[in-house]
Design goal:
The complex is a heterodimer of chains A (111) and B (111). Chain A has no helices and eleven strands. Chain A has 111 residues and is mainly beta. In chain A, strand 9 and strand 10 (99-101) form a beta hairpin. In chain B, the strands form two sheets. In chain B, strands 2, 4, 5, 6, 9, 10 and 11 form a seven-stranded mixed beta sheet that branches. Chain B starts with a strand and ends with a strand. Classes of the chains: A mainly beta (111), B mainly beta (111).
Chain lengths: 111, 111
Amino acid sequence: GENVEQHPSTLSVQEGDSAVIKCTYSDSASNYFPWYKQELGKGPQLIIDIRSNVGEKKDQRIAVTLNKTAKHFSLHITETQPEDSAVYFCAQQGGSEKLVFGKGTKLTVNP
Amino acid sequence: DGGITQSPKYLFRKEGQNVTLSCEQNLNHDAMYWYRQDPGQGLRLIYYSQIVNDFQKGDIAEGYSVSREKKESFPLTVTSAQKNPTAFYLCASSHRRGEAFFGQGTRLTVV
């Protein structure tokens, strides 16, 4: 199947600390792994993505790592700021081209 | 402006009624998706379509129907067979195997 498990479901950090969210997937044909940020009452927005031919990708304070052997990928946010507070979703897309999401992580950055 | 538009933003349905949620995109995307979001459940896939005149069931298709007569449009009908339709509904579009763009959502409430 094309399931995605996401942990933790809630995460609270102090401003300036790092935050890490992890996802595992089951479909070995998965080849596209995006991360989305959703603010209250709005649709999710893509913040970073990675494809299966790359192990790591970085964009300023945000990075994603992919371990294909272990079938997991992670989002890393460094130097967190209060505006990073939101719900974050991982997703994966495999052979069927369905885009399947994890259940989300509510991140709170305390000033 | 290019984008994806959902309407209405809020919708109220009486029990036993069918209602249709609109989703339009002018991004020239082939793929379109409908998700349902409930608190703590993440984004669950209802239906998706990769090309015009073709669509596939997602994980929770029962009680819903869709059509894809035009590339730009992917309306979702919530039928009376859907026993618990109150939720936040999100539409997305993408090039096949690419970044998905979300609309701002429709909040459906049964009254």
